[in-house]
C-alpha cells in the first residue's frame, strides 16, 4: 500500500529565468504524479505538494540539483493522497503576496535584511531571558484563531497584502524598540515580513527558523505554541500532540473547534469554524455572505446536494 506525504518548502535565491523554472517544475510534478502548488518568481521558489513518499523523494532530490536550491529545508507531514485537487505551477511577482515585489531584495544567501533566524531552543531562551519579547503573527487572522504563540500580537488582516498598510499605519510603532519574533506556518512569509519591519524602523526583529512547523515538531505540547495549525490543504488543520485543545470556537455551539468549512454553496469563500458534531449543519446550510450575494439561486456543493434545501 502506498504511503502518502506532503512536502512544504521554499528557497529565496535570484532566478534569472522564472518561466524556465516553472516549466521544469511542471514537468517534474507531472512526471511523478504530484498535486499541490508551486510558485516561482525572480526571488526563488515556494511549494506545497502531495504524493507518494517515493515520488516526492525523487522530486525533492531533483529539485535540489538546481543552483540555489541545494539547501532548501523540506518539511514532511502525513498526507492522504487527496490533499490537493490538482497540480498548479505559476510564475508570480512575489513568492508571498505582500504587494511590494520591488522592495524585496534577494541574494545567494536569501532575503537581504531579514530578521535573525532562531531555532526552537533559541526562541525559548530569548523568552526566558527577556520579559519584553513579543511574538508577531505573520499569518492571516483566521489562521491565528485556532492556534498561535502564547501572548502573540495578531494583526487584524484578511490577506497578506494587508500587512504593509497595517504596519505603515503606526499601529505597531510601540513595538519598534522591543524584541519582535515573527512567525508563520513554514517560515516563508516571515522571511519577507521581518525585512519589511526592519526597513520601517523595528530595531530587533527575529523569525522562527522553519516556522511553526519546526518549532512545534520539536516541542509538541510542551513549548510556547498553543492550539492547532491551519494548513492550506484538505486536512485544514494539524496538531502536534494528542491532547491539544483547539483555541477556536464553533459558530453553532461555541464548543472548541479547529476545522474550517465552507457552506452548502459551491461558490462559498467564507470559512467558518465547526466542531465535529456541528460540521454537517454548517455544510448543509448557506452562510449569510452567500445568501446576501446570491439570494435567489445557487449551485450546491456535491457533498451538500442532498441538504441543499436546508434553510440558510
Automatic annotation (TrEMBL):
tRNA processing recorded as keyword: yes
Enzyme class name: oxidoreductase
Example GO molecular function: oxidoreductase activity, acting on paired donors, with incorporation or reduction of molecular oxygen
Keywords carried by this UniProt record: Oxidoreductase, tRNA processing
Sequence ranges assigned to domain Rhodanese in this UniProt record: 129-224
Pfam families per record: Rhodanese, Rhodanese_C, UPF0176_N
Keyword presence, Glycoprotein: no
EC number(s) on file: 1.14.-.-
Leader sequence residues: none
Catalysed conversion reaction: uridine(34) in tRNA + AH2 + O2 = 5-hydroxyuridine(34) in tRNA + A + H2O
Origin: domain of life: Bacteria
Gene Ontology biological process terms, A to Z: tRNA modification
SMART domains assigned to the protein according to its UniProt record, in alphabetical order: RHOD
InterPro entries xrefs: Rhodanese-like_dom, Rhodanese-like_dom_sf, Rhodanese_C, TrhO, TRHO_N
Family indicated by similarity: Belongs to the TrhO family.
Function, in words: Catalyzes oxygen-dependent 5-hydroxyuridine (ho5U) modification at position 34 in tRNAs.
Protein name: tRNA uridine(34) hydroxylase
Species this protein is from: Flavimobilis soli
